[in-house]
Design a protein that fits this description.
By secondary structure, this protein is an alpha/beta fold. The chain contains nine helices and twelve strands.
C-alpha cells in the first residue's frame, strides 16, 4: 500500500548515528529524506525547499528542537513538526503541543512508531495542501470567469452607438472572489452569529472576519460538528491534533486554544461564552442564537 507518494522529510539531530538510523527507516518505505545536524542548518534547508514533515530532536547545541519548532511555525503555521526526545517530561510535551507540534516521540522510538507518526504527519500535510489548492482553484476560476464576463459586456457597450447608456459597474474584486469561492464549495456553516468558512482558517461575525490558527479552526469545526453534546478534552486532542493523551494532559493542551478563540470572539463584540466549559468534562458549543 502506497502511503507516502515520495513525501519529503527532514530529520534533524546532532547525533549522526540517530540521523542515519531514522533516515534509513523512512527511506526504506519510499520517503525522500534529508538530514540536518543542527537547528540552524535545518532552518537554512527549510528556506531552500519545502518539506512535508520535519522530525527533530529536542536537545541540541545551539537552536533546540522547541526553538526550531517556534521558528518554523512563525513563518509557516501549517508545517508538520514532530519532536523526539530522550528526556521526556510532561511540561515539555505540553509546551510542544501548545506550540503546534504534530507529535512527540520518546527516544529510543521503534521503527514502527516513527513510520506511523511520520505517515500521519504526511497525511495531514497533504490534506492541508489539498484544502489550500482547492480554495485557490475556486478563487482563480471565479475571478477569470467574472473578468471574461466584464470584457464581453464592455465590448458590447463599445459596439453600441447609443450615447446615453448608464456607466458600467466596477468589475468584481476580492470580496466577490472570496465569498463566491466559498459558496461554490457549498461548505459554509452558519452557527448562531458565526459563519464558518471551511477551506480557509477564517470565520466571521456579521461583516467582521476573524482569522484563526489551524488548531483553533479545527477545534471550532469539531465542536460545531458535535454541537449538542459535551466533547471531552481527550477527544478533542485525539481528533483535532491526532494524539492519545490522558484527560488531565489533554485539558492543559486544549485550554489555551479555547482561551484564544474566546478572546478573538470577544474582540468582535460577540459573547465569549459561545464555547461553554463544562467543568470536569470538556467543552460544548452553545446553542444560543441558533
Amino acid at each position: 500500500m502506497e502511503t507516502n507518494d515520495t513525501a519529503h522529510v527532514l530529520v534533524v539531530d546532532d547525533e549522526g548515528a540517530i540521523r542515519y538510523s531514522v533516515s534509513k527507516t523512512l527511506q526504506r518505505i519510499g520517503y525522500e529524506v534529508d538530514e540536518a545536524s543542527s537547528g540552524e542548518e535545518a532552518l537554512e534547508m527549510i528556506g531552500k525547499r519545502e518539506y512535508d514533515v520535519v522530525l527533530t530532536d529536542i536537545r541540541m547545541p545551539g537552536l533546540t528542537g522547541v526553538e526550531l519548532l517556534k521558528r518554523i511555525k512563525d513563518t509557516s503555521p501549517d508545517s508538520i513538526v514532530i519532536l523526539m526526545t530522550g528526556y521526556a517530561s510532561l511540561g515539555t510535551a505540553v509546551e510542544s503541543l501548545r506550540l503546534g507540534a504534530h507529535d512527540y516521540l520518546i527516544k529510543p522510538s521503534s521503527s514502527q512508531d516513527i513510520r506511523q507518526s511520520v505517515a500521519r504527519g504526511v497525511e495531514r500535510a497533504r490534506n492541508l495542501k489539498r484544502r489550500r489548492a482547492l480554495l485557490d482553484a475556486i478563487r482563480s476560476n471565479v475571478f477569470e470567469l467574472s473578468s471574461a464576463d466584464m470584457a464581453a459586456i464592455n465590448a458590447a457597450y463599445q459596439d453600441d452607438e447609443e450615447d446615453d447608456l448608464p456607466p458600467l459597474p466596477p468589475p468584481p474584486q476580492q470580496h466577490f472572489e472570496d465569498h463566491s469561492g466559498d459558496s461554490a464549495s457549498n461548505n459554509n456553516m452558519t452557527l448562531g452569529p458565526l459563519t464558518i468558512y471551511p477551506g480557509r482558517y477564517q470565520i466571521s461575525v456579521g461583516d467582521k472576519p476573524i482569522d484563526l490558527t489551524p488548531t483553533e479552526f479545527d477545534l471550532l469545526l469539531y465542536l460545531a460538528a458535535h454541537r449538542g453534546r459535551v466533547v471531552s478534552c481527550h477527544e478533542l486532542v485525539r481528533e483535532v491534533r491526532g494524539y492519545a493523551v490522558d484527560e488531565a494532559e489533554a485539558r492543559e493542551v486544549i485550554r489555551p486554544h479555547v482561551s484564544n478563540l474566546r478572546r478573538k470572539l470577544k474582540q468582535t463584540g460577540e459573547d465569549a461564552d459561545l464555547i461553554v466549559n463544562v467543568r470536569g468534562i470538556g467543552y460544548r458549543l452553545s446553542e444560543t442564537g441558533e
